[in-house]
Hints:
Helix 3 packs across helix 8. The model has no long low-confidence stretch (mean pLDDT 84). It contains eight helices and twelve strands. A hairpin with a 2-residue loop joins strand 1 (25-28) and strand 2 (31-34). It has 278 residues and is of the alpha/beta class.
Amino acid sequence: MLGLPQSVVSRRIKELESICGARLLYRHGRGVVATPAGQTLLETARPIVAELALAINSIADCSARPSGQVSLALSPMLMSAIGANFLAEMRQCFPDVRVNLVAAYSRYQYEWLMQGRIDIAILNEVGLTSQLVFEPLGATRVVFACRAESEFLQDSTEQAIRFEDVRSIPLVIPTREHGLRRHIDLAATKNNIALNIVYEVDDIQLTKELVAMGKVATLLPRLGLTKEIVTGAFSERRLEAPEIAARFVVATAPSRPITHTMSATIGVLKSQVAGLLI
């Protein structure tokens, strides 16, 4: 990954172990793991490296053109929807910015923001903490979706489906740790509806594969199903009584100032989601 010969990496590790006076890595038949001393060094060094990257970015901000490194996390759903176009726009508009982009769910994004491992995250607003600095981005409607021409919609020509009419349909939806699931559970509880949940899956690709098999339907933000709906692979119905929407914010850590490069990155994120959120 570093583009260095293994011998160079090994020599530098030995030099570091000599400085620390302890063995940092343990080699075994399946690869390499950190020793307790190595893990301690890693945990101690990580925020220092993050601060160094921030310092470099701050210096780069002295110029008019955004440059340096920026790291951000998107949910797997957003990554699928805008990831490629976001990176392409960043490269076109800000070629001097190095983007580190990772996919993660909100609970991990929050931890990484507070630890200084990422600069920016797009989070579901459910369960947000005041420890973060955030700005509303918009919302995406949750829709009922199933395989095109599925038996679940054979008798329906309407563009919407009532929430109570979903109760008998086998569903695959996110687990209880997922922000969207909290919206769904809240709506079900308020309306005294027991859903027929067959699978609980957080991975959006697996969810879509299960729906494509035709045995289950799903409740997901339309944002994550756009490609399948446009191509005709899936049919959708707008949820009514109640309507459910997933709301998103762009978040940063209060301990890390928003640099010129971060602001430019957030601007591109906003432009990418503008046509997808309401």
